[in-house]
Amino acid sequence: MGEPPGRPTPILVVSNHGHIVGGGELSLMDLLRGLDRGRWAPALVVPEDGGVASRGRDLGLPVHVVPLPTLWRPGPGVVRSIVALGRLARTTDAALIHANGSRAMIYGGLAGRSAGRPAIWHVRIAESDGAVDRALCALATGVIATSRAVARRFPWAPRKVRLIPNGVDLVRFTPRAPSRALGAVLGVPPSAPVALSVGRFVAEKGYGCLLDAAARIERTKPGVHWILVGDGELKGELGVRARRLGLESRVHFTGWRDDIPDVLALCDVFVCPSENEGFGRVLIEAMAMAKAVVATAVGGIPEIVLDGATGILVPSGAPAALADAVRAVLDDPARASRLGAAGRARAESTFSLAAHVDAVERVYTEVLGAGRAAGELAPIEERER
User: Which of the four pLDDT bands, split at 50, 70 and 90, describes residue 20?
Assistant: First the structure.
């Protein structure tokens, strides 16, 4: 008889947020769902109870609430939380700490140092934090960057950074017929062309430019409906802008929804107007659904959407170019179908959730000392030769 398998290795996974505020939390949940429970025993740490904790419990994970106070006005709570997180690492016998975001890394990195545990920093944002990046990179045993645009934050530490793009569940996000019932619920006529965008309503997501592009299209190709899934600080302002542009009956603000695959099935083109984007998780979801994509050529987007092959890339902040690209897709269904099919193939070959989880697990193995013999990831500069 062979030796019995060892017990799974405990790890602490620290979330920046207690609520689902964007793709970073959704990607974290997918990772936690995909981890091999025979090898890893993750416990989730959240700064407050909310959607992240709820989804973690649904996955059967132990969930711990440890406040992560803002560091703009540091006080005694900062020290208490670092101590509490270090104590949790010891009492759970966690072998490593995986911090999803910068605030999580500040606390997870310092707690890891105090408890003698390595820390992994999962970075999803391309914009540099200057000296903070150097400090957190020094605390981290390893850094996971979701794109080359994100990895460029750390030019001084190429051997510490591992490039691991997000992955998508190719079973959940698979092409399907659109639901007329859902279209009716969202206010979209059965025969209307549909453009879809998903994301937070904040300045960097470029929704003002999108509405200007929609107004241009309405003047030359009336009847296109726009589904905007999301929420955020600019929701009211965007609603006012849509009304001012005469688009009140064409633009549908749905709030956040859990049925994104079904909403994607309704659209003829997926539009991402971001001004900056570290990765753009929803782009691979749209590609997996075989949807043609129109997006801005910023941040990590060109690493996902291949211009002319799986979608069309345009400059950011250029409503005329955005309108022209969306119109070109809507006016040529055969081209849209080709772009969508190529996008699905690219999602399958490059952005599967299984490949993402496997790569993260290899980083865990590497950080815990198994080295190249157990599949260590090569440094970025070596892998790109």
Answer: confident
CATH hierarchy code of domain 9-167+352-383: 3.40.50.2000
- Residue 284 sits at φ, ψ, to 5 deg, of -75, -25
H-helix or E-strand spanning residue 87: helix 76-91
* Single-letter residue type at 186: L
Q: Give ranges for CATH 3.40.50.2000 in the chain.
A: 9-167+352-383, 180-350
* Residues contacting residue 249 through CB under 8 Å, at least 6 positions apart: none
Structure token pair of residue 86: 């270090």
Token pair of 334 as six digits: 């055969």
> Quick check: 269 and 292 in contact, CB under 8 A?
yes
Residue 222, helix vs strand vs coil: coil
Summarised one tens digit per residue, pLDDT across range 283-324 is: 999 999 999 999 999 999 999 999 999 999 999 999 999 999
Q: Does domain 180-350 have CATH number 3.20.20.80?
A: no
**pLDDT tens across 22-39, in order?**
888 999 999 999 999 999
Determine what percent of the chain is predicted with pLDDT higher than 70.
95
- Smallest Cα–Cα separation from 298: which of 322, 319, 273, 320? 273
